[in-house]
Protein: ADP-ribose pyrophosphatase YjhB, NUDIX family
Amino acid sequence: MFIAVKGLLTLFLQERQYHVLSTCYNLMIHYTHPNRILVALDCIIFGYDGEELKLLLIKRNFDPEQGKWSLMGGFLKEEEDLEAAAQRILYDLTGLTNTYLEQLQTFGAVNRDPVERTISVVYYALVNIQDQDVNAIRTHNAYWIGLNEKPALIFDHNAMVEQALNRLRYKAALHAIGFELMPEKFTIPQLQRVYEAIYTKQLDRRNFSRKILSTDLLIGTGEKDTTSVTKKGQLYRLNAEKYQQYLTDYVSFFPELTLA
Ligand SMILES: O=P(O)(O)OC[C@H]1O[C@@H](O)[C@H](O)[C@@H]1O
Structure:
């Protein structure tokens, strides 16, 4: 409403007259606070390649901190919502849309970025590595790196990754978000390996299978995994409707794993 009134008034009035009017009618047009504080976004992108849980990191070929490793980030544009900015950054780097993306935390320590006061709003994403745009990744000098081989990152990006991993472990135990890392068709042992990678612990095969099948989250495709050594694994796909329910309902997906 305010924007519409302001728009109409500025159409017909000179800036000076608008100021006089806005003062009379108490229409605020800007804040007088002088500080320049930038808002950036950083994205922690998790992917799973069938073996390991990985992070998409960039080897910086630009300043600041050229030559070092960092998360993918960027500055918030004036006409952009936070979520849209995070999606833009994720799309630029991976070519992916419609991925699991969740705001993690805001990092705002005064000296976190030595160049200028910058507040970073951090998101984490779970992607299926197979769907990525390899060219986009190459263009940005980005690499998938296993969590165990993670290099030191610039600024407070190491702490961001640490927080994201904690959140992922917490969330994956309560909701079925581990499926976000899977390809379209997968076997139960493949799914188990994702959970083992997230929690860095081995899970009992029978218990895992029983638990997963009892959720009704899997739909059998009638196909077998021809890439496995035994070629015996049943291929399943995710029951999307049930999955949505598991995302919104408060359920303990793997209650025992939160304690890990
Ligand atoms: O866009 P780059 O140069 O990576 O980073 C500049 C700032 O924006 C954020 O992403 C970083 O955390 C840093 O504060």
Observations:
- The chain has three domains: 1-30, 38-172, 175-248.
